[in-house]
Design goal:
Elements lengths: L9 H19 L2 E5 L15 E2 L3 E2 L9 E2 L3 E4 L13 E5 L16 E5 L11 E4 L3 E2 L11 E4 L9 E2 L10 E3 L7 H9 L4 E5 L3 E7 L3 E2 L10 E2 L1 H12 L3 E7 L3 H9 L5 E7 L9 H5 L4 E4 L2 E2 L3 E9 L3 E8 L3 H20 L8 E5 L4 E2 L5 E8 L5 E3 L8 H6 L2 E5 L5 E2 L4 E6 L2
Parallel strand pairs: 6-7, 14-17, 14-18, 15-16, 18-22, 20-25
Antiparallel strand pairs: 1-13, 2-13, 3-12, 4-11, 5-7, 5-8, 6-10, 9-10, 19-21, 21-22, 23-29, 24-28, 25-26, 25-27, 27-29
Length: about 425
């Protein structure tokens, strides 16, 4: 297809993918209640991303009891009211309070050694740091002892009151929040046993090509390992999708069979290969209800998008990428990753973007949005990694940036600024 043939602009295709895929995922997303404990292991967290679908409410106060903020002495503030450096107050040392023990009430005229996080005894209303006591060490447990204090304290000093962080019934984690380490920690601390989450989208990923062999299997003549399936499965999992991966030859019956046997909960079909205008373009030739055409981008010009029938007649969106490996992954980054990341709550939904000067001049087809692979040098300039070829997989692996050369530009000189996305 020469450049005179009308091509869909990149921005228009991005909008089309958002409309077809985003709308379907929003409408068909299942909400499930899962035990919090099941989210604490990788096996319970497909794609390591879970998004709450309802507010998670505290089942208990946090902290659940008044506890000490310091290692020190639990005291009655009234007992220290007249303490001065020249006239210290002496109190008898009560039984110590380690963390995890329930102490007896504190008697007037006594001070109880208390550890950080341990309960403050009933009757005590403040804690004096061990460094501010005389002597500044705890006596051996069970040994009669006296401790002196040289200053009064305000009630509440170094005491964490029950419920000061969270009160039972408070919303801990609002709906639409990604459950990361901090969110899981507070759910456990506040006694929440289960949460309602949006189920991870199930993607049927289909690599097409009679030459493809799964990683680890022996290669025959003129065969290739399926790098596309590996890359796209990893990329989908990284943003919170569950993936079922299949390889099919360039045979419409084989592709139709995989779609007919799709798992019942598949929400999206993604294919690689078979979308151009050649003689063996199995995706384009089989899925005739979808749109197939060219987008004004390099690499990744041939694209497909639509709604297809899978399994027992369900309609799900299709996103079809070209078969060259760099084209497939760049297409995923440009068109599909932002839509899926927004649906799963994966952050950031968009790759961090920047702008920097070129270290060297580059040429680009003026009629296309070219996406080159690059990195920043020690001076903060963009250096291209490899050429524009869509087969240069090793160069893609070595790059840390996707560099955007906009349409309408045929050459940029060293020092000209370019936009880039971080890509690691």
């Amino acid at each position: 297809m020469d450049h005179e043939t009308p091509r869909r602009p990149v921005e228009r295709h991005q909008e089309a993918v958002r409309d077809v895929v985003g709308r379907a995922l929003t409408a068909g997303r299942r909400m499930v209640q899962v035990p919090v404990a099941s989210l604490l292991t990788p096996a319970g967290r497909p794609g390591a991303v879970r998004l709450t679908a309802a507010d998670a409410v505290a089942a208990a106060d946090l902290p659940g009891f008044d506890n000490s903020q310091m290692d020190g002495y639990a005291v009655r503030a009234a007992d220290l009211a007249g303490a001065t450096a020249s006239d210290p107050v002496a109190l008898g040392v009560a039984a110590p309070v380690p963390a995890g023990t329930q102490p007896p009430p504190l008697l007037a005229g006594t001070a109880a050694p208390v550890m950080t996080g341990a309960p403050v005894p009933l009757g005590a209303d403040g804690v004096v740091k061990i460094e501010d006591a005389s002597p500044p060490v705890f006596p051996d447990p069970g040994t009669p002892a006296t401790v002196r204090f040289t200053a009064p304290i305000t009630p509440g000093t170094f005491v964490r009151p029950a419920g000061s962080d969270v009160t039972a019934g408070d919303v801990l984690v609002p709906a639409g929040t990604v459950l990361g380490p901090a969110q899981l920690g507070v759910l456990v601390a506040a006694g929440v046993e289960a949460v309602v989450v949006a189920e991870a989208p199930h993607v049927l990923l289909v690599s097409t090509g009679s030459e493809l062999v799964r990683a680890g299997e022996p290669l025959g003549p003129a065969q290739l390992y399926d790098a596309n399936g590996t890359m796209l499965a990893a990329a989908l999992g990284e943003i919170g999708c569950r993936v079922t991966h299949r390889i099919v030859p360039d045979d419409p019956a084989a592709l139709r069979g995989v779609l007919t046997r799709a798992p019942d909960d598949v929400a999206l079909v993604v294919t690689s290969g078979g979308v151009s205008a050649g003689a063996y373009e199995v995706v384009r030739q089989t899925l005739t209800d979808a749109w197939f055409g060219h987008v004004a981008v390099q690499p990744g010009g041939p694209q497909g998008l639509g709604t297809i029938t899978v399994g027992g007649g369900r309609q799900v969106p299709l996103v079809a990428f070209p078969g060259n490996p760099v084209s497939a992954l760049v297409s995923f980054e440009l068109f599909l990753r932002p839509v899926l990341a927004a649906a799963t709550g994966s952050t950031p939904a968009h790759r961090p973007a920047g702008r920097a000067p070129l270290a060297e001049a580059v040429d680009s087809p003026a009629h296309l949005h070219q996406v080159r692979r690059g990195r920043l040098d020690a001076d903060g300039r963009v250096v291209m990694v490899g050429g524009p070829g869509s087969h240069l997989l090793a160069h893609l692996a070595a790059a840390t940036l996707l560099v955007h050369l906009p349409p309408g530009v045929s050459r940029l000189e060293a020092g000209d600024a370019v936009d880039h996305w971080e890509f690691r």
